[in-house]
């Protein structure tokens, strides 16, 4: 079955045609240049860009083959961008008389691992870290996603963005912090690891962000205050990156061990971070786990993972009506 995936949950216009774990064609058009002057994604600008780019992206992918079904992100995400992708998917489903399924974006980040060869087979645990979410899923059987814990404040990707902004590094923060960290010492600053040793499976990065601010400005000084003299940007970037990777990998591996699960999957935009990928593989292997990490192109937002999750739903017999709507707040 060939599944056409469509994702416009944030600022990537993405369309892909997938058969099994083979990506026949994938188009991902980012909008970094449009949002960089604002230091973050502006929803209205993102939605307009999706409108302009959707038809050309669809034409390019459909030229590679005819789909048997359509899968589209309808939750969670930015409401305007979501509606653009959803409208395109429903229109195409109507015109071509194709079945359509709505896909949960975060579950699709888990399903991105099914594009690997070999792919993980349940049971496994998935760590999903992105700009808006940091959470753990247990996948006991194919298609079932059990949420174990999530972020209680800032997500890992949000922390990267805010650390980058405080250090004067360009948006998006994740790649900028990683690049700066290459020349830094990850042990230079003793930064906190919030919730690392708590018994729950939740995450918190607000305290880490505040600790970085104190290193730059001094304690009890707001973000508008002057920077301290000679703040070593590379060392602070490396230390912050290390703290984030440490917490994410420690809690994910501990969750596997507690449940007797031997496979760990990483997904989400933060899973494109080189240090996180390295540390997860190193620690996971030492703990006797098999670690699966999709290529970076399938960690960041993309429609191939939407098609992969859509295929699961279609195999279960799921079909949605054309009156399905977007839900920006779904967990």
Please supply descriptive tags for the structure shown above:
331 residues; alpha/beta; Nucleotidyltransferase, domain 5; 2 domains; five-stranded mixed sheet; 10 strands
Fold and architecture overview:
This protein is of the alpha/beta class. The protein is 40% helix and 18% strand. It is built from ten helices and ten strands. The strands form two sheets. A five-stranded mixed sheet has the order 3-2-1-4-5, with helices on both faces. β2 and β3 form a beta hairpin. α7 runs antiparallel to α8.
Short description:
Helices cover 40% and strands 18% of the residues.
Topology of helices and strands:
Blueprint: E1 2-7, E2 13-19, E3 22-29, H1 32-35, H2 43-62, E4 69-75, H3 79-96, E5 100-104, H4 105-111, E6 124-129, E7 134-139, E8 146-150, H5 156-166, H6 173-181, H7 206-217, H8 233-259, E9 263-267, H9 274-286, E10 290-292, H10 303-315
Helix pairs in contact: 2-3, 4-10, 5-6, 5-7, 5-8, 6-8, 7-8, 8-9
